[in-house]
Write a structure and sequence with these properties.
The protein is α/β, with parallel strands linked by helices. α8 links the parallel β3 and β4. The longest helix is centred in the last third of the chain and has 17 residues.
Length: 338
């Protein structure tokens, strides 16, 4: 039994470079050179080391290599609470995009002290970069990344700090376009369901709606706030309808809340779009489902991911280049709720 336990322990232990060296009858440094691109080693000896390594199940330790000046390819990504489908879709696309570019994401979610502690702990690893997708973190995280020479890219909100790059859509412009279109369709009594406080997009999107109305001599007749979930959109729409204020258009700060609002309108037998136009924001996959066919403002996910990864590569190539902020154009997608 003791022998079996010892054999089991050996099987569980990770195979080391020294194990490969012993099996191949070479030095440990020869094994290191065999797995180092550009390092000199006799071709026959390199091939033999690779064969033995494969037989033993050896893989070079990427983290150990990074401590010697190589890239770890590890990219931490803070995704916050992912309250709605847009956040989930972007996170999935970002992970796939990083993988395709040969980066390996370490994903951190949640909020509050637990999230801040998780981000603080992951900074102990040799990260190539940190991507902030959403949520809020202490300002000292930015300072720590700067001291550790870890590049940061903020996606969806602006962080004004040296060497921190930002990518964000033109929230206000997207809402202005949506409002102008509905005014052009003859709508005059606008309600609005906005996002939660503390989000960068919340005031931006509301400002766009207000600006689009003001240029036509109009103003919001009623508004409520949600938390970017479908449930909150339903509750907000119920509040607007119970207020008794007449509306012929309802703009929602994201698609999830628009779905909830559509459900509330259906419960009150209000026909969309005959009696009420409804427009969302983001253009998540569900927006095109036959059950919704939501008219919405497209927040370009694929372009967002491509831009973040491009900024990451440019930052890795030149760590001291000036911080860059890129605003992505939105697009009004017309379906059947306007």
């Amino acid at each position: 039994m003791k022998q079996a336990d010892e054999n089991s322990a050996k099987r569980r232990r990770r195979v080391t470079a020294q194990d490969v060296a012993d099996a191949a009858g070479v030095s440990r440094s020869a094994v290191s050179r065999a797995f180092t691109k550009g390092a000199y080693l006799d071709a026959e000896k390199r091939e033999n080391i690779h064969k033995i390594a494969a037989d033993l199940g050896y893989k070079p330790n990427a983290l150990a290599a990074s401590l010697q000046g190589s890239r770890s390819q590890l990219v931490a990504m803070f995704v916050g609470e992912m309250r709605n489908e847009y956040d989930k879709e972007v996170a999935a696309k970002m992970i796939a995009g990083l993988n395709a570019a040969h980066h390996w994401p370490v994903v951190i979610g949640g909020s509050g002290d637990a999230a801040r502690e998780a981000v603080d702990r992951v900074l102990s690893y040799p990260l190539d970069a940190l991507i902030l997708r959403s949520g809020s973190l202490d300002a000292d995280i930015v300072e720590k990344c700067a001291k550790l020479n870890i590049p940061m890219i903020s996606s969806g909100r602006l962080l004004e700090a040296p060497n921190v790059d930002n990518v964000c859509c033109n929230n206000a412009d997207g809402m202005i376009a949506a409002t102008r279109y509905l005014v052009g369709q003859g709508r005059r009594k606008f309600g609005y369901i906005g996002g939660p406080e503390g989000y960068f997009s919340t005031p931006q999107r509301r400002h766009g709606v207000a600006a689009g109305l003001a240029e036509n001599g109009l103003a919001l007749v009623a508004e409520e706030a949600g938390d970017y979930t479908a449930d909150s959109g339903y509750r907000a729409a119920e509040q607007l309808l119970s207020s008794g204020v007449a509306m012929d258009a309802l703009i929602c700060a994201n698609d999830a809340m628009a779905f909830g609002a559509l459900s509330a309108l259906a419960d009150h037998d209000i026909s969309v779009p005959d009696d009420m136009s409804v427009i969302g924001f983001d253009d998540i996959a569900m927006a095109k489902w036959p059950a919704f066919r939501l008219t919405t403002v497209r927040n370009p996910m694929d372009l967002l991911v491509d831009t973040v990864i491009d900024l990451l590569h440019r930052r890795l190539a030149n760590a001291t280049r000036p911080a860059e902020t890129i605003f992505l154009a939105t697009e009004l997608i017309l379906r059947e709720t306007h």
